[in-house]
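Sorry, can you check?
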Amino acid sequence: MRDILLRAPRWALALAQFAHGASWVLLFWVATAVGVAGLTPAAIAWIHLVALGWMTLTALAILTPLIPSATGVSWRAPRLQHVAVAGFAVGAICFPAAWLAFERAIPALGGILAIAAIFYVALALWTLAGAARGERVERAVARAFSLSLLIFAVVAIIGATLAGAIATPEIPTWFGHLARAHGALALLGWLTLLIYGVSARTLRLLFVVRSRLLFAHIVVGTLGMAGAIVLAAGAGTGSPTTMWIGAVAMAIAAIAYAIDTFDIVARAQGAMLPRAFVVASLLWSLVAIALGIGTLLGHDWSDAFGYVVLVGWIGQMLDAHVASLARPLPGWLAFVAFQSAVLYGVVGLLAGLATPVALAAAFGGLGWCAAIVAIGSGHRPIE
């Protein structure tokens, strides 16, 4: 795994970590100056800084070396692929800033993000098509990557549509439903399904242990994909029944993934810090299931659900991979601080209180500083 991280574009990983650190500063400002009630422009800026600047940019950077490593095919037009990542990086940093200071730029930046995302996905699909002549495992991995990337393109197109609608004199009636579909497809379709697919390879690299629950992979792949699409469709059409069907499928997929991954971690040797982050990520994913079900039952838990999915489930899984480069002492400090950040944020959002959310931001900032020290002091060149 260290080899994969060190072969990823370092500027992109560094920029993603900058966005990660900036997100805690922004969250502290939101909690202390704006408040945590409602989906304000500042809250939307924070969501996109995390989802685009930190998580998606990290994912695109890691896919640069991971796709050739996992599928046996080399990137076609690698320079153009780097251009696509660079274009996305510009949009991922500027788009959240526009929500705070220059809303007139939102439609244009949404278009830049969509163009860059589609360009990246087209190059990736062109590359992955070469895996059709490979072995069965490589073909399966290529299919999983391709499906996740197609969802990413759809998310980007929907996002650009929403960004363009903001510039209209009157917000269209379909805006709210489409925004909910966009959020569901981004968190549960693009980012969650990407983790399901990528971790089949990266967890093996982290822990030198293979999965022995093949059926779990089938459940995760089929129900995860179907559930995310159906849930997003239900959110887009305002159909509670459709949302429940998708949510149940996603919950089963998440539980199957957790069982399989817990089994991998239990059999792993060493790598205690990455193992701790993976376990934390899985536990937060189970909390997210409970919050999601509560939201569908009518409780006002949607903000807490989104926070746990982003910072708890997805964020801690990303941190688990980065922890393979970290020194133990500052790495464990980062681990404790990040779990505190997730916990205080959930409590604050469930109670509608700004103080716990501000504490979450403070712990998150502490965790980020410790993680940077852990990565910087633990880095060593590949021998």
Q: What stands out?
A: The chain has a mean pLDDT of 91. The first helix runs from residue 2 to 7. Residues 53 and 92 are 5 Å apart (CA to CA).
